[in-house]
Fold this sequence. Notes:
This protein has 14 helices and 10 strands. It is an alpha/beta fold.
Amino acid sequence: MKPLRLAAxxxxxxxxxxxxxxxxxxxxxxxxxxxxxxxxxxxxxxFYPNPDHAGIYMAQKLGYFxxxxxxxxxxxxxxxxxxxxQVAAGRADLAISYExxxxxxxxxxxxxxxxxxxxxxxxxxxxxxxxxGIKGVGSLKGKTIAYAGIPYxxxxxxTILARADLALGDVKxxxxxxxxxxxxxxxxxxxxxxxxxxxEGVDLEERGKAPVVTPVDQLGVPTYxxxxxxxxxxxxxxxxxxxxxFLAALERGTNAAVEDPEAATEAITEANNDLDPKLTAAxxxxxxxxxxxxxxxxxxxxxxxxxxxxxxxxxxxxxxIQSPPQTALLLSNDYLPGEIPE
Length: 342
């Protein structure tokens, strides 16, 4: 009887152990399902969801942020100038902003650092229509130029005009806010500055307006990173891995968007029902090469410190800032996926 009792006891213990492991396993699965193990991370966009955000929404659609252990929340600002201020104030972990805004923020004492370029080249362009008869910047003399009222873009225009021996007084500059395309198409302005070549440029093409579109860095303005991801240095120091995980997931999302533009378009239009699917598809096609662009031997999102220093010097020379902030305070490539070559 004794061996039988021991055998029975062993079987009971084995069953009890199996049940314990099963319960424990179910608990882990439930925790993952509820997202309790995910680390929250907040991102404020620069504007409403649009093709510039294709990599982000594709990564979210495919679950890449969750796979990285992140519970990403995305919000759109009512004012494009707010996101960088929210990061500086600690009200958001990340924000999409612009290199000029980062330099201005640092000059004003705001504690922000760019940790990756979403678009590593200027999108801001000067536009006119072929039918206008404008042959180049020199032909803008006496013309009306619409712009969005952004101070550093007025400095862009001044630099552009100077190459043709023109000054701001030789043209009529009108602040139209977000009404750039209506001003150009409606004829109240013969040129516009401030639209993006991959958005307004595509919009005008789709309307059959035959626009002439020239990015500002082809007209004398130093090159810069149009869209950058910005974080608060104190949060970067407290939890660097969270930001590295985000950027790695974003890279996966960007690559997936490039491989499947139709799915990327769906991800954007699902995030913003106000977008026209046909126009958005055309804009996504124009945008994806910009999102995926990278300097040879550099990781996606790399920011060139020397180029930032040059652009900050241009801002100083145009009296937009008092003095160029230290480049090490403006940006860091330390959170990008992959090794940074010396």
